[in-house]
């Protein structure tokens, strides 16, 4: 890492965050024309074998739900001759279109999209599967001379994609079956806390940190213990190692230290698109309303999931935000003979909106600690944001987002007080009459 990029002791985290993406690029950011000439001379003087090692650039665009990352990725890909690789854990499923904000057929005809509609809703998908599929697709895109643009908000998928997946042993069919037998009784009777204690006693105290009823993650933790005799925490995580090494280098590196980012397989240029929290909450609320306004959208998709025999929260597809809440609401309507009141509908809508906002809050918390991302303000002129990304792709020495486009990470901190004091202001469903067409649709379709 070059000396001029090293923050002095006592500098703020902001200095680290702003310099991190540049440090992870094969090209350092010169601080003067003299530095630029020196960097060019150094590169030119390298033997041919070193010059040929320049890594291919992969653009990664992420952000919380509702921030507009898909629109941004589409425009960037159009201008750069790119192809989009979806990093969304719900868009992989066929038939789940509205609730996952899947790109339209028209958009996919303009720019090729990958890892969309690749699974049936009865299947499960994992971060490991995404790592395998996305890495293979990335190389295919590069081999065709195109630009990979990875877009999505599933944080674990993106972390493993860039840094590598943990070297955790795979479970055999026998182990998977045995673990299922151990947990199925707890799951069917809803005894989540008892199941967690089983895994804790087996040797994994961190199972206590899992979100409630995340049976998939709990099962996987127990599978690792049964397969290896060790808890998941015993296995090294590539991201953690990389993060710790960089924190040390940023404070202690010398003039001739090398950026640890060179160990990444690609030159990742990462953007996190976000809005100030209250503005984001408003966007999310409206998005939830729009998904329900047309009964042929999320309501119909959730009804179809019930019709094919699925139930809320039994696998990845039915646990997805929006689908789980809508399926639960429609199940209640079916139990009431296909009837629902405006009060019940508005209670469901409020729950859908609140859950979506909480998800965005978790996304922001996750990505605030991912130093490789530069944060961009979604409220700034769209064209300027697109130009910055395209220019940075062509000029690796210009990758620090200008302050006019930057969104300060601390401005997006979501506190408990924010969530308690925030009040939704519906734009579509303002009163009982506005949901009458939804209640009519429920009477016609949910008398099962």
UniProtKB/TrEMBL annotation:
InterPro entries: Dimethylallyltransferase (IPR039657), IPT (IPR018022), P-loop_NTPase (IPR027417)
UniProt EC number: 2.5.1.75
Catalytic activity: adenosine(37) in tRNA + dimethylallyl diphosphate = N(6)-dimethylallyladenosine(37) in tRNA + diphosphate
Disordered: annotated segments: 28-53
The keyword rRNA-binding is assigned to this record: no
Cofactor(s), by name: Mg(2+)
Enzyme's top EC category: transferase
Family from the record: Belongs to the IPP transferase family.
Alphabetized HAMAP family for the sequence: IPP_trans
Any single Pfam family the record assigns to this protein: IPPT
Keyword terms of this UniProt record: ATP-binding, Cytokinin biosynthesis, Magnesium, Nucleotide-binding, Transferase, tRNA processing
Upper lineage: Eukaryota, Viridiplantae, Streptophyta, Embryophyta, Tracheophyta
Record-given protein name: tRNA dimethylallyltransferase
GO molecular function, one term: tRNA dimethylallyltransferase activity
GO BP annotations listed: cytokinin biosynthetic process; tRNA modification
């Amino acid at each position: 890492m070059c000396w001029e990029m090293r923050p002095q002791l006592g500098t703020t985290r902001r200095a680290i965050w702003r310099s991190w993406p540049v440090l992870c690029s094969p090209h350092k950011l010169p601080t003067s024309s003299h530095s630029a000439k020196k960097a060019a001379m150094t590169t030119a003087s390298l033997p041919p074998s070193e010059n040929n090692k320049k890594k291919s650039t992969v653009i990664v665009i992420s952000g919380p739900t509702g921030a507009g990352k898909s629109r941004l990725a589409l425009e960037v890909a159009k201008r750069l001759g790119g192809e989009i690789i979806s990093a969304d854990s719900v868009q992989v499923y066929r038939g789940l279109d509205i609730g996952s904000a899947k790109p339209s057929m028209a958009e996919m005809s303009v720019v090729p999209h990958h890892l969309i509609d690749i699974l049936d809703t009865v299947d499960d998908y994992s971060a490991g599967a995404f790592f395998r599929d996305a890495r293979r697709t990335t190389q295919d895109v590069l081999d065709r001379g195109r630009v990979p643009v990875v877009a999505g908000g599933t944080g674990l998928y993106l972390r493993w994609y860039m840094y590598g997946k943990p070297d955790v042993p795979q479970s055999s069919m026998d182990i998977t079956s045995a673990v299922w037998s151990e947990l199925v009784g707890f799951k069917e009777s809803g005894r989540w806390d008892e199941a967690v204690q089983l895994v804790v006693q087996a040797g994994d105290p961190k199972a206590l940190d899992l979100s409630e009823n995340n049976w998939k993650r709990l099962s996987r933790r127990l599978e690792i213990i049964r397969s290896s005799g060790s808890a998941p925490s015993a296995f090294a995580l590539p991201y953690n190692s990389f993060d710790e090494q960089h924190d040390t280098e940023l404070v202690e590196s010398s003039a001739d230290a090398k950026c640890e980012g060179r160990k990444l397989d690609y030159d990742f240029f990462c953007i996190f698109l976000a809005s100030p929290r209250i503005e984001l909450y408003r966007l999310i609320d409206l998005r939830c309303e729009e998904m329900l306004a047309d009964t042929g959208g999320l309501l119909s998709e959730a009804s179809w999931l019930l019709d094919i025999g699925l139930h809320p929260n039994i696998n990845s597809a039915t646990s997805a935000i929006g689908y789980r809440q809508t399926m639960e609401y429609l199940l209640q309507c079916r139990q009431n003979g296909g009837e629902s009141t405006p009060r019940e509908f508005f209670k469901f809508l409020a729950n859908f909106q609140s859950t979506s906002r909480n998800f965005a809050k978790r996304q922001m918390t996750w990505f605030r600690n991912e130093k490789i991302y530069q944060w961009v303000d979604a409220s700034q002129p769209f064209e300027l944001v697109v130009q910055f990304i395209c220019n940075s792709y062509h000029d690796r020495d210009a990758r620090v987002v200008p302050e006019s486009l930057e969104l300060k990470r601390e401005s997006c901190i979501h506190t408990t007080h924010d969530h308690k004091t925030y009040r939704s202001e519906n734009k579509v469903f303002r009163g009982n009459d506005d949901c009458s067409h939804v209640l009519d649709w429920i009477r016609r379709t949910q008398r099962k």
